[in-house]
Amino acid sequence: MHQDNVKALFDQQAANYDTQWVKTAPIRNCLHLLLGSLFNGLPQDAHILCVGVGTGEELVYLASKHPGWRFTAVEPSGPMLDRCRQRAATEGVASRCSFHEGYLSSLPASDLYDAATCFLVSQFIMDVSERAKFFDEIAERLKPGGLLASSDLASDVESPEYEVLFHAWLKMMSAADIAPQAVERMRRAYSNDVGVLHPMQVSSIIEAGGFELPVQFFQAGLIHAWVSKRVATDRGDMTT
Question: Which GO terms describe its biological process (predicted)?
Fold first, then answer.
């Protein structure tokens, strides 16, 4: 799916996005619980980059647990970023956040980050080489050895296992009060507009983007999540 089409889709969904997905909160809660454990060793004044932050679920979770951490939220959809900004203000963490409407490539240069999150974002990049370049852009923003926690829809779509997971996933969407037309749209999108790849291939793409071998730390249905470290060399690409 072209990035402009993805942006337009999320612009349309922003107002009702959190309500639409409220019944799938147990998946996010588990992901965030594990994320918190993986990031627990970061400095007390860590600076976290949240790529494709959406309405700010992971940002608010981490900010609530670590009062000394600062956050940079990057999101191309203005309406989604507005929701993130409102949520951060409601939770009393907005003063520790900066908000960038746009893509990572347009984020002004700054000190390197201690860690980054990128949840359900790279799956919309259909070209494998462009997807690796996307992870390379994240790596350029991280300190050597900096952590990346990322998730994407992933599966071996040619396998019998995928059929089981896919139909269970759609049933879960229906049970979550997702409109039938939206469920059907997901079915078409997973076939044509979303890069659902084998988990090992996604891991290889992350590694090709400048990270050490990613470790899968979470799976719920089609969602897989990995933690990886930026290669521990100073690439000399930004001022530290």
Answer: methylation
